[in-house]
Amino acid sequence: MHEAGIAQQVIETCLVQLRAHPATRATTVGLRIGPLSSVDPDALAFAFDTLKQKTPLAFATLRVESRSRFGCLCQQPPADVMTLGGFCPSCGAIESMADAFALDIRYLEFDVERPMTALGISIASGQHLTRSLRFS
Question: How many CA atoms lie within 13 A of 105 on its CB side?
Answer without folding.
Answer: 21
